[in-house]
Amino acid sequence: MARLSLLIALLSSMLLSGCGFHLRGDLPLSHFPAMYIQSDRHSELAALVSNRLEHNKVELLASYQQSAPMLQLLSDSLERRTLSLFPNGQVAEYELIYKVSYALTMPDGEPQQYQFELFRDYQDDPNQAAAKAKELELMLGELRQQAANRIVRQLSRLH
């Protein structure tokens, strides 16, 4: 019985590793041993992307080198669109749209530009202004984390 359990566990792990499965946050970035990130100095998104890359053992270069890829975080912005109104005409619900644009330049290559949008619904209660401001701040932080994860995931798919 113990041997059967061991055999099943071994076969399961071989099947999972064979299909490309890996734990969340641990991405294969071996084709990017070092990288330069160009962005706004105070960009929170850049800090999150840098942390994710360092976690995945990518050396971050202090200055651009032609022999290493360059990731340019071109822009990130938050927009909001009205989804619904209260009967008195005040906004009841917004849709938050977080837009990210970045480019990746491989050594001796042309920059490849990428962009994506992340969406979140946000209910607005005019009677809870302070709490809603804090909630909006938290949602923006979560959107930035999702964006950083998505950029690193997209980098892991490039070969």
From TrEMBL:
Together with LptD, is involved in the assembly of lipopolysaccharide (LPS) at the surface of the outer membrane. Required for the proper assembly of LptD. Binds LPS and may serve as the LPS recognition site at the outer membrane. Component of the lipopolysaccharide transport and assembly complex. Interacts with LptD. One of its GO terms (biological process) is Gram-negative-bacterium-type cell outer membrane assembly. This is LPS-assembly lipoprotein LptE. Keywords: Cell outer membrane, Lipoprotein, Membrane, Palmitate, Signal. It comes from Rheinheimera pacifica. The keyword Lipoprotein applies. Gene3D superfamilies: Lipoprotein like domain. HAMAP family: LPS_assembly_LptE. Pfam families: LptE (PF04390).
